[in-house]
């Protein structure tokens, strides 16, 4: 075999190995990473670099009372692979992580009209799908999810103490859709 043929074969082999590594890396990214978001007792934290690695689900605008525009904007992300899994069977997969950023909104005139936009981060709401009842003694885990609010100043420590009193009331109208307002996320629809 000539030197040139050996170089070509080695190049093709290297390309195949790199392609397999890319496929394996992509597959690894598609798996929800909920285990790294909680300690042994089930206490959560806001995932690092979620804006770079999570999928954007959608944005909610909370209307201001008695004036034009929004008082808050809620921007929601899901862990990698969550939307594809949801599209398959209409359910969030065990371990899926949802992160909602809550911003105070600002409203003002622009060339397109009166516009509201994100202004100041108020905090995050994090949920982890839990089909396995991982932390039955933790008051932030129940109804198939872990639930936690984090103030903007500290993404590592929740201020929630019990999901039933601190979180669930806002989600009660969405109980029939697994406590999540799925109608606001067009990417979940086929």
From TrEMBL:
Residue ranges occupied by any Cytochrome P460 domain in the UniProt entry:
49-181
InterPro entries attached to this UniProt entry: Cytochrome_P460, Cytochrome_P460_sp
Q: Which Pfam families match?
A: Cytochrome_P460
Report the CDD domains cross-referenced here. Answer: cyt_c_I
Cleavable signal peptide = 1-21
| Origin superkingdom | Bacteria
Q: Which UniProt keywords apply?
A: Signal
The keyword Amino-acid biosynthesis is assigned to this record: no
Protein name according to UniProt = Cytochrome P460 family protein
């Amino acid at each position: 075999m000539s030197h040139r043929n050996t170089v070509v074969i080695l190049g093709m082999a290297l390309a195949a190995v790199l392609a397999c590594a890319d496929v394996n890396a992509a597959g690894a990214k598609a798996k929800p990473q909920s285990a790294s978001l909680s300690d042994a007792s089930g206490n959560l934290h806001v995932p690092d670099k979620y804006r770079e690695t999570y999928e954007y689900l959608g944005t909610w605008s909370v209307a201001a009372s008695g004036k034009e525009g929004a008082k808050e904007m809620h921007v929601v992300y899901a862990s990698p692979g969550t939307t594809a899994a949801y599209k398959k069977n209409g359910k969030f997969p065990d371990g899926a992580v949802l992160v909602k950023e809550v911003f105070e909104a600002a409203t003002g005139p622009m060339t397109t009209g009166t516009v509201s936009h994100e202004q100041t981060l108020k905090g995050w709401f994090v949920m982890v799908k839990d089909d396995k009842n991982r932390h039955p003694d933790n008051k932030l885990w129940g109804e198939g999810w872990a639930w936690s609010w984090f103030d903007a100043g500290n993404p590592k420590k929740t201020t929630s103490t019990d999901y039933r009193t601190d979180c669930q009331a806002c989600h009660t109208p969405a109980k029939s859709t697994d406590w999540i307002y799925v109608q606001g996320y067009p990417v979940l629809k086929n």
